[in-house]
Amino acid sequence: MKQHSGRLLLTLCFLSFSMTxxxxxxxxxxxxxVTNGSEDATKAQTDRVYPTYNADSADTKDNQNRFKEHxxxxxxxxxxxxxxxxxxxxxxxxxxxSFSCDQSTIDRIIEQNGLQLSTENNMRxxxxxxxxxxxxxEEIDQLIPYRAGEEDEFWQYLWYNPATRQAFYEEFSM
Length: 174
Fold this sequence. Notes:
Layout: H1 2-49, H2 61-71, E1 80-87, E2 94-100, H3 103-113, E3 116-117, H4 137-141, E4 146-149, E5 154-161, E6 166-173
Antiparallel strand pairs: 1-2, 2-6, 3-4, 4-5, 5-6
Organism: Chitinophaga filiformis (Myxococcus filiformis)
Keywords: Signal
Protein name: Lipoprotein
């Protein structure tokens, strides 16, 4: 009888230990799911109040979100090397973007935002010499921009070089 009760006790201990390990694994997995979900929800809420712009990394999720937000079109597969920068520290703001794309994407941006080809020859972008390697001021100065906006409110400018498929976008308030 003692031999059977020893085996029974050993079996019960083993089963108890196994159940504890398995339930801890499930609990740990559930904790990770809940934690990751709350981190995603927190990031989404924070991004609405303080949007993130990645001037040092191309094609990030934040940059893709800013593209859709500012240009009011869906991101397509032809949009590559997307960099964004936003400055909201003063009463006015400025947003810069650089990306490569097809002419069809430029056409959709122009139509969606009501941009018109500028008739003025001296339409220069805000100059950020050397601050960003992707903001090519010399190239921008050679292009005629599309623009829209109202005095004392905000302005949008879009430059596009069809030969290089390079686009530069600037939005600012005054």
